[in-house]
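User: Here's a structure from my thesis project, written as structure tokens. My advisor, Dr. K., wants to see whether a designed sequence matches the one we expressed. Can you design one independently, without my sequence as a hint?
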């Protein structure tokens, strides 16, 4: 395990330096040293046990950090996500049935057809779209796609008792939702009663393992249960950055590299037939997802190719689902190897193409050109920067410092602007309270709003008349769609 750990990290760094997805390097290590390659290291009970724990903690953090949806999501994102999952799913079902996988074609098609929010988040950060409206629209589609796929996978794990599986999934999900609030309250109570330094960490680890055990007892996937638990404990962890750092070190420093190495170790000997079927599945996966992503771009009103490539990103929870299915003997080693090979090929190709097209052009394409006073504000698709009312004050101050601005917009749960936090307000607060106070605990300055169909000259008049440093741009439903800063508008007017 020590050898696997260091080889995985070295290969990840090598892949990162040549512009490829880092964790694919770990998978390659597993394939080469495992039974799929030279057969130097074999899966045993210890590695299998570590892997099973790794899946649980990786999916818990995925739920706690990747699923970050603020405000009300419009129905168009649900429609688009369902279509983007359904069409590739049907295409893969037909392909798997045709090539001779009649027993598990439904279960295998789910991870192959789904998209992955984790890799998409990293990709959007790399190309500078993580906080832009276009990036948010991509993220909403993929996250809904992933959640639906996880639920569908849990239901299809036992097709012989489909109705029972459906009832169990609903029961477990309902139980987690109902108890999630009490789990966070219980953890907070532990902190107050016991003064042991590591009680928070022990408490969260205990909660993950106990929920996983209960899920397994009732024939529900423990890793998927951990994912939903992470989603429910998002606010609890967001208020405890030190605890998040411990979980990151615990999971990403040890479990993650060994988990991705184990993905390769679980491969059987890669024959010409396995390679051929893996390539066929990868072609069907990539083409079907790109085509349906292009078709749904009209629903979301994003550039066709941007939506097509962005919603085709894979290589996260999908591989976790496959290794879980293999560990529970729902699929065999050959089916596993073919499917993971298909996902790996997709994971290598899509991000590289996306970065090549949008990594360089993103800034110039969305507003860093000279503008005119007569053009509509909706054409200024600037980076959408804001904080939520329930965010910590320290988060707002970080935005003020990083952006070097005098104010940051504050929105409610429906994404409607309710004011802004100014640097003067932050200076007036005791620094020891920055992490304790919520944004709405301090006095907010009144924010000016303007309709997205207004002209740039209208925004300039507001800046001149009110002397406010910031203007919120809203749509016809009153929701925040853009934020204007006087300095940035002036810079765009003179073409700098």
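Assistant: Designed independently from the structure alone:
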């Amino acid at each position: 395990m020590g050898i696997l750990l260091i080889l995985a990290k070295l290969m990840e760094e090598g892949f990162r330096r040549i512009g490829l997805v880092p964790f694919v390097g770990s998978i390659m290590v597993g394939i080469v040293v495992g039974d799929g390659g030279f057969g130097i290291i074999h899966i045993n009970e210890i590695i299998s046990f570590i892997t099973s724990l790794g899946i649980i903690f990786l999916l818990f953090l995925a739920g706690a950090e990747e699923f970050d949806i603020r405000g009300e999501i419009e129905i168009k994102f649900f429609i688009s996500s369902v279509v983007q999952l359904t069409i590739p799913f049907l295409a893969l079902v037909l392909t798997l049935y045709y090539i001779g996988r009649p027993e598990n074609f439904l279960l295998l098609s789910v991870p192959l057809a789904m998209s992955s929010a984790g890799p998409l988040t990293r990709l959007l950060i790399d190309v500078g779209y993580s906080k832009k409206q276009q990036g948010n629209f991509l993220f909403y589609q993929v996250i809904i796609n992933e959640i639906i796929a996880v639920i569908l996978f849990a239901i299809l794990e036992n097709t012989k008792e489909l109705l029972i599986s459906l009832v169990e999934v609903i029961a477990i999900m309902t139980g987690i939702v109902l108890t999630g609030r009490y789990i966070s309250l219980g953890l907070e109570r532990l902190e107050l009663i016991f003064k042991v330094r590591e009680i928070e960490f022990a408490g969260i680890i205990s909660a993950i393992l106990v929920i996983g055990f209960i899920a397994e007892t009732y024939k529900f996937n423990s890793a998927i249960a951990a994912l939903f638990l992470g989603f429910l404990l998002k606010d609890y962890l967001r208020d405890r950055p030190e605890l998040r750092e411990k979980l990151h070190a615990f999971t990403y420093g040890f479990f993650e590299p060994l988990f991705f190495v184990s993905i390769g170790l679980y491969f059987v000997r890669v024959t010409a037939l396995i390679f051929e079927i893996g390539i066929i599945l990868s072609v069907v996966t990539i083409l079907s997802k790109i085509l349906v992503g292009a078709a749904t771009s009209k629903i979301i009103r994003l550039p066709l190719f941007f939506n097509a490539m962005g919603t085709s990103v894979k290589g996260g929870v999908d591989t976790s689902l496959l290794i879980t299915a293999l560990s529970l003997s729902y699929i065999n080693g050959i089916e596993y190897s073919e499917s993971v090979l298909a996902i790996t090929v997709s994971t290598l190709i899509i991000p590289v193409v996306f970065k090549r097209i949008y990594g360089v052009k993103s800034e110039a394409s969305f507003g860093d050109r000279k503008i005119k006073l007569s053009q509509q504000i909706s054409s200024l698709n600037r980076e959408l920067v804001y904080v939520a009312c329930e965010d910590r004050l320290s988060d707002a101050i970080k935005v003020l410092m990083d952006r070097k601005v005098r104010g940051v917009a504050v929105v409610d749960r429906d994404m409607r602007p309710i004011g802004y936090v100014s640097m003067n307000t932050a200076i007036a607060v005791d620094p020891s309270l920055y992490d304790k106070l919520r944004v709405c605990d301090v006095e907010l300055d009144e924010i000016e709003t303007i309709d997205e169909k207004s002209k740039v000259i209208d925004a300039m008049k507001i800046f001149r008349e009110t002397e406010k440093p910031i203007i919120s741009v809203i749509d016809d439903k009153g929701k925040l769609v853009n934020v204007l800063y006087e300095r940035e508008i002036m810079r765009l007017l003179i073409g700098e």
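When you compare it with your expressed construct, this may help: The longest helix spans residues 333-365.
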